[in-house]
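Notebook entry, structure prediction.
Reason for the run: the old model in the group folder had no record of what sequence produced it. Starting over properly, with the input documented here first.
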Amino acid sequence: MQTMSVSNSGHHRHPTRRRALWRPTALAACTLGLLVACGGGDGDGDGDGGGGGGSSAPATYTTATSSVLAGSDTYGYTNHADPLQARFTRIWGLTGDGAGNLYVADFDSGAMRYVGSNGAVGTYAGAEPPGGGAYFDNPNPLVARFYGPAQLVRASNGTLYVADSNNHCIRKIAPGANATTAGAVTTVAGVCGTTTGGFNNGAAPTALFRLPFGLALDEAQQVLYVADTENNRIRKIKLGSLAAADAVTTLAGNEAYGSADGQGSAARFYHPQGLARDAQGNLFVADGFNSTIRKVDANGQVSTLAGTPQQRGYANGAGSGAKFYGPAGVAADANGSIYVADRGNNVIRMLRPNGSGGYTASTLAGAQPTNGIDPAPPGTATGSAAATQFKEVTALWLDGKGMLYTGERDGSRIVKLTLQR
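New structure, fully documented this time:
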């Protein structure tokens, strides 16, 4: 067993606020509000679509049961053979390999953790505490350093891409000798370690990002999509031509925050966070501070699927009749359903096509809020989906086999939902 305490000093904390969304302050403070990691399109052939996922089930899921897979309601950093004795700090990203191994972005510790198929929890990459809070590429993954790792997405060859948010860049972890051993850590795009980040398209080594959080990978594994959160943009990275002048481009959005549907730079987001991609090339975006779910098609056309911009709350229903409270992670399955980590409401929501060209929101899991704005009291109960009590659920990953894995920011647990029709 390995146990280490983790100090919050030197790590950027998210204020624990449930009645009001965090609003951006000076970037030097790097306070990351309702942000997450959970992307899509890993191309590993299991039909999951990666961090954002895509179930290969022939029918739509409607309910679930739940159980705690790893962690407990205790903030910390502990590796352990018993997953329920392991400790995490704040979980912002989840993905897996389809063979029972999960990879976890442990935000405050600056480490990538794993939950092996045998249940054991260990460190996959990143210097263990107090090793986080810096930038360092290294052939030895346990010497490399991350600063606020957020969303993860996995390629079919085992490469993990990481949104290294507080370093303002995109990193990758090469596969190692087995599923729980990593290879070298290198930088894909961005100038890592800058104080405030920035914005610049162009060749990957000179491109600039500002608090990137969401990631999704296309089916061919040639394009990596990034939710560039503080820049309010969705960016594209051409993985096969990183030195080219058009290696990093903007698909949609512009620096001005707000909410506007439209083409490319005419669209506006307000801190886009989680990303997921479907087989048709559509990206789904958890537009965190707008409390809406957006879609970006392959041509950069942006539309709003559910929620009303900057009107947070809790309501199921169609289109703008639905309300969310700082949605974080998203996942998309092969049946057209979209799963949402509704962080502020402590529930998992589900959007399903309603036959009228739109989507209708329902609650899949989580004790539902008792009114339109305050979440139900968080706790640790699991069993039926309706009785599950999350503590700021953030990360989602679909395994393509009827399991939806969730990660919590404040509960520091991984909860497994067994989906049912």
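Summary: The two ends are 39 Å apart (CA to CA).
The old model has been moved to the deprecated folder.
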